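Retro notes (design track)

What went well: tokenization of the new backbones is finally stable.
What didn't: we kept losing track of which sequence belonged to which structure.
Fix going forward: every design gets posted as structure first, then sequence, in one message. First example under the new rule, 189 residues:
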């Protein structure tokens, strides 16, 4: 799996691309946290749930169906997120769903149960270029953890930085300049 530092990168890139008017900061923050939720399944490993089981790591919680249900439920707070329900739902689905998709690009594990409950088969992306992160804090702060972060920088952060930069530039280019203040005061822009 990519690290918990990297899973929030997808919603962050989408947020930078679309801007605060479409994705308010509260929604962006919830999306970044929600992108990490599928890894709560590691708790099961400590309680005897087998890694390869449907409820094991990278199983049910990494499916697009669970991402959709979770997004639908979290979107019920849309008023507090200062956005409409549909925008909240789409953004949160992309945020949560991106977790399993990113994991599918890693070079370790048993694959991702993206299609659960329709299938328990686990999938990998055609290119498995992201170094899989070691489980556990102690193993993460090692040479292996550093290799994982370098891999994520190249295969996740750099491409998302380019997408967010280009997307943000296009958004700003298409946004008309602010008009004069209707009260007659000079625009502080």
């Amino acid at each position: 799996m990519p690290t918990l530092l990297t899973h929030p990168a997808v919603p962050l890139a989408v947020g930078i691309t679309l801007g605060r008017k479409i994705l308010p900061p509260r929604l962006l923050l919830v999306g970044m946290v929600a992108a990490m939720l599928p890894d709560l399944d590691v708790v099961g490993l400590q309680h005897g749930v087998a890694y390869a089981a449907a409820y094991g790591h990278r199983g049910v919680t990494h499916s697009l169906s669970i991402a959709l249900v979770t997004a639908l439920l979290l979107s019920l707070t849309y008023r507090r997120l200062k956005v409409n329900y549909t925008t909240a739902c789409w953004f949160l689905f992309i945020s949560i769903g991106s977790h399993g998709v990113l994991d599918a690009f890693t070079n370790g594990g048993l694959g991702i149960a993206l299609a659960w409950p329709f299938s328990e088969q686990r999938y990998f992306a055609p290119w498995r270029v992201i170094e899989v992160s070691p489980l556990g804090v102690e193993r993460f702060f090692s040479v292996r953890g550093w290799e994982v972060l370098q891999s994520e920088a190249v295969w996740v952060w750099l491409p998302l930085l380019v997408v967010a930069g280009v997307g943000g530039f296009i958004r700003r280019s298409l946004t008309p300049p602010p008009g004069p203040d209707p009260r007659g005061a000079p625009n502080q822009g």
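Added context from the reviewer: Residues 11 and 95 are 5 Å apart (CA to CA).
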